Amino acid sequence: MDLDQALLRVQELEDIVKEKEQSVAALSSKKEEILSEKKNLQSKMEADYVLRTQVTQNNEDKFSRLETQLTQLQNKYEEDTRKHQEKEKHFKEQNIVSSIVSSFGDVCHNPEEFANLLKYQGLATTNDSGVPVVLFEGKEMSPSEFKVCAMENKKWQHHFKPTAGAGTGKSFGNTSSLNTKNPWNKETLNVTEQFKLLKSNPSLAQKLRKEAQ
């Protein structure tokens, strides 16, 4: 190989090296570009993750607040319902007592005590329409209707005032000494006189009632 050929070969090798260097530079530039894109993608992914985490957390916080509010509203509703039921029950019981006191006020020693006794025994209550009634011997009676039966019942006699002959001007003994007609007889039936006699002399009223049967 002469000198010219050697120089030519050197030039060729230099060109190859230069080409290779350019290829390496291009690859390095491409690598940097890829790394830059990767970094940008990672940043976007991190930002997206942070955003999704914040959204998830916000949604969880919102759900938790709504759940707390719902629980509070439910508790308030239950408390209001309980108070309303208690007020309704108290009003109903007071209405029952007031009705019995009104009917028995003139004949009982302590009409309120008697009313509470009937309520405690489950006799005094209200019907489906909310009207005070007394359940006695399988029947539903108004307090005024029950008054007649109560005054004839021996187990309640101690609750009533001693009213023998009161308000009538008469002292009742037996039927033969009466100067009045038996108000339970069919011929002389008189409901007003029955009530008067029941108030004034329950024992005699009961006797007259039996005689009229």
Verbal overview:
- The chain has 213 residues and is mainly alpha-helical.
- Among the domains are: 66-156, no CATH class; 162-213, no CATH class.
- It has helices at 3-104, 111-120, 143-152, 191-200, 202-212, and strands at 124-126, 132-136, 139-141.
- A 3-stranded antiparallel sheet has the order 1-2-3.
- The longest helix is centred in the first third of the chain and has 102 residues, at 3-104.
- It is rod-shaped.
- The model is unreliable at 164-179 (pLDDT under 50).
Annotation field: number of helices: 5
Order of helices and strands: HHEEEHHH
Reported for the largest beta sheet, the result is: 3 strands, antiparallel
User: In oligomeric terms, what are we looking at?
Assistant: single chain
* Share of residues in helices: 55-70%
Class from helix and strand fractions: mainly alpha
Number of E strands: 3
End-to-end separation in angstroms reads 162 Å
Mean pLDDT: 80
- Radius of gyration of CA atoms, rounded to a whole number: 52 Å
Low-confidence stretches: 164-179
Estimated share of beta-strand residues: 5-15%
Write out the strand line-up for the largest beta sheet, numbering strands in chain order: 1-2-3
Based on CA inertia axes, which overall geometry fits? Answer: rod-shaped
